[in-house]
């Protein structure tokens, strides 16, 4: 899916992420990276699910400068409680998860995206599934 958010020339935005309909999965965390067009990128996420949250969400963040980069969301969930099921069943259940990526600018205008770009992908030896969503800031 090609997702983009028109920043309307605002220098800053804020974001929020929610995951629901967990269906027996254990949500672990989400990391958000900002890939900049100038090639100067950090390996560190700009936001991560706070330790006290157990739903892999990102609460509404403070405003941050985006430089019209690419937001890169990585969400990890555990299927340890479902590991007796066949992989095909686990994958079908994972595809039913509900993702909400919310972006807001200083004027209060906002947009919500409900699709991911890559995944679900199983990391079998760790009993994890991860998803990736990309949102281009234009």
UniProtKB/TrEMBL annotation:
<protein>
    <submittedName>
        <fullName>Uncharacterized protein</fullName>
    </submittedName>
</protein>
């Amino acid at each position: 899916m090609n997702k983009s958010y028109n920043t309307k020339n605002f220098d800053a935005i804020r974001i929020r992420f929610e995951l629901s309909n967990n269906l027996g999965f254990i949500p672990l965390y989400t990391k958000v990276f900002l890939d900049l067009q100038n090639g100067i990128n950090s390996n560190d996420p700009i936001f991560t699910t706070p330790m006290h949250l157990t739903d892999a969400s990102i609460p509404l963040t403070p405003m941050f400068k985006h430089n019209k980069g690419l937001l890169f969301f990585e969400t990890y969930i555990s299927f340890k409680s479902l590991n007796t099921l066949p992989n095909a069943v686990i994958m079908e259940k994972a595809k039913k998860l509900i993702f909400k990526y919310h972006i807001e600018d200083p004027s209060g205008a906002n947009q919500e995206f409900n699709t991911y770009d890559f995944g679900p992908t199983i990391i079998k030896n760790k009993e994890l599934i991860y998803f990736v969503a990309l949102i281009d800031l234009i």
